[in-house]
Amino acid sequence: MSTFHLAFRNMTSRLFIGIDDTDNLESRGTGFHARALCAAINDNALGRCRFVTRHQLLMSPLVPFTSHNSAACLVVETPASLQAIEHLCKNYLLENSAEGADAGLCLLPEKNLSHALARFGVLCKHRVVIQTQARDLAEAAQLGLFGLTGTEDGVIGALAAACLCASGNDGRLLWLAGMRDHAEQTLTLSELHNATDIAVVQSIEGEVLSNKNAKIMMGAWPRAIWLNGEPCLIVEPVEEQADVWQVAAKNYLKQF
């Protein structure tokens, strides 16, 4: 992470807002609702929502889910009022969650993140978890965790998404400012940093790009991953073209 981003992080506090199980097979997905909530927070000046992340949870016949069992998290910096954000999120999900959804909402201030919460997020990727576990952990950590519709099973994924995102190294970006605007374009590294909130661009092997004039072909599906608490764009070299890169293949990025 760059010195600028470290300094910026030190000046701000973050709120991680997890949501899950807001949809059904016919409705818009949880990612859509997460992006809409992000826009609503910004439009109402309740903080600066900078990122929306997607987190893959356990896929098992023992776990009820709509399509892929993924949950979403909003990253909000310097929230004006936790109570006001909670009120907006609750109202939005109550009004917009699909029929039959079991919507859950979690508000996790960065300062409340603990090893127990980080472990819970990872656990939800590999094992079946029940509501009681999520609710007991949230109560002990003094987090806002709310079941809003149906069986309220969405509290599990909402807490897991907030914990995984706050831990900093899981998932990929569903939204960050400027990213989708540059699909199918070729940008220099300098242009990419100026146009988006991408913190780091690195190769699949882990080489961090530093040449500001390096060219990056964004392709049709440019998605960043969540790495060290910031968006990181993974790229691979274009054969026989010096310092020309392309965003890693969709199939590769879908593992995150």
If you had to describe this structure to a student in words, what would you say it looks like?
α4 (115-126) crosses α6 and α5 (131-141) crosses α6 (154-167). β11 and β12 form a beta hairpin. The two termini are 19 Å apart. Helices cover 34% and strands 25% of the residues. The strands form 2 sheets. A 6-stranded antiparallel beta sheet has the order 5-4-1-3-2-6, with helices on both faces. Strands 7, 8, 9, 10, 11 and 12 form a 6-stranded mixed beta sheet that branches. It has helices at residues 3-11, 30-43, 82-96, 115-126, 131-141, 154-167, 189-195, 250-253; strands spanning 14-20, 48-56, 70-77, 104-109, 144-147, 172-176, 186-188, 200-203, 215-217, 225-227, 230-237, 244-247. It is built from 8 helices and 12 strands. It has 256 residues and is α+β, with helices and mostly antiparallel strands.
Overall radius of gyration: 18 Å
Low-confidence stretches: 1-10
Q: In oligomeric terms, what are we looking at?
A: single chain
| SSE class | alpha+beta
The mean pLDDT is 90
| Principal-axes shape call | globular
Count of individual helical segments: 8
Name the beta content range.
25-35%
Intertermini distance: 19 Å
Query: What is the strand arrangement across the widest sheet?
Result: 5-4-1-3-2-6
Fraction of residues in helix: 25-40%
What sequence of helices (H) and strands (E) makes up the elements? HEHEEHEHHEHEEHEEEEEH
How many strand segments?
12
Major sheet summary line: 6 strands, antiparallel
